[in-house]
C-alpha cells in the first residue's frame, strides 16, 4: 500500500520529514530537541507501562512478551529503547526514508525491530493489535487527527482474563498562545531549534479535543501531564504546566 495515498497522511508533512531523514540520529542536528526531550519521554512511558502491566521495575527487560506499536516512529529514537526494554516493537512511519534510516540504525545496534512504511489505518485494516502504542508528537502532523487517534485506539488489545487492556501514550502540543510563542515562534524562528515550518500552530490540539475524539470509545483517558523545559539547565521534565507540551494516557477498557 502507498502510505502517502492513505487518508491520515498529510503529503506535505511526509515530504518535510523525508528531506531531513538522515539526521535523525545526530544529537546536534535538526532533531536535537527530540534527543534532549527523549529521557523525559522514556521515563514517563516506562513508568506508565510498568504500572499498567504490573511488571518488575528491577528487571532488565521488564516488558518481555508485550507487543508495542511506535506510530510515526521517524528514525527510531523511541523504538530502539523500547526494544531494549523487552517490547516486541513494530515501528511505522509514512515516510519511506525515515524507515530506511531507522532500519539501518537498528541493524547497526543489533536490534530486531519490525519497521514498516505504512499508516495506522492500514495496520487496523490488517487486524493488527498491540499491548502498547506510542503516539508521540505525531497527531499534530496528520490530515485527520480524530480518525487517526480512533484508529490507533482500536488497535489496543482489549482486556482478557488475567490480562490488562492495552495502553496508548499520546504526546503533542497544546493550541495556546504560550505554545505559539514558545513552540512555534521561539523554537523555529528565534532559537532555531527546529526548521522553520516544522509545526503548524493551527494543528496543535487541546487536551479536551483529544478526549472528545475518543468520547464514545471504550477507553479511559487520563491527563494532561505537562512537560516543561528549563532554559537554565537545558533540560526537560514532567511538570504541572500543560500549556505547551503535554502527554495523555489511553487505556482499553473493553
Please describe the topology of this protein.
Blueprint: H1 11-19, H2 32-53, E1 67-71, H3 79-84, E2 88-93, H4 96-108, E3 114-117, H5 120-125, E4 132-136, H6 145-154, E5 167-173, H7 177-190, H8 207-213, E6 219-230, E7 235-239, E8 245-252
Parallel strand pairs: 1-2, 1-4, 2-3, 4-5
Antiparallel strand pairs: 5-8, 6-7, 6-8
Question: Could you explain the architecture of this structure?
Answer:
This protein is of the alpha/beta class. The protein has a single domain, classed as Vaccinia Virus protein VP39 (Rossmann fold, 3-Layer(aba) Sandwich). Helices cover 34% and strands 20% of the residues. The protein has helices spanning 11-19, 32-53, 79-84, 96-108, 120-125, 145-154, 177-190, 207-213; strands spanning 67-71, 88-93, 114-117, 132-136, 167-173, 219-230, 235-239, 245-252. It is globular. The two termini are 30 Å apart. The relative contact order is 0.15.
The chain-level mean pLDDT equals: 88
Number of strands: 8
Q: What's the overall geometry?
A: globular
Q: In the residues, how many domains can be counted?
A: 1
Q: Which class best fits the helix and strand makeup?
A: alpha/beta
Q: Any guess at the CATH architecture?
A: 3-Layer(aba) Sandwich
Q: Give the CA-CA distance, first to last residue.
A: 30 Å
Q: What is the fold-level CATH name, i.e. the topology?
A: Rossmann fold
- Name the poorly predicted regions: 1-6
Order of helices and strands: HHEHEHEHEHEHHEEE
Rg over C-alpha atoms, rounded to the nearest angstrom: 17 Å
- What is the CATH C-level name? Alpha Beta
CATH homologous superfamily identity: Vaccinia Virus protein VP39
Q: Specify the biggest β-sheet.
A: 8 strands, mixed
Percent strand: 15-25%
Record the strand order, biggest sheet. 3-2-1-4-5-8-6-7
**Count of helix runs:** 8
Percent helix range: 25-40%
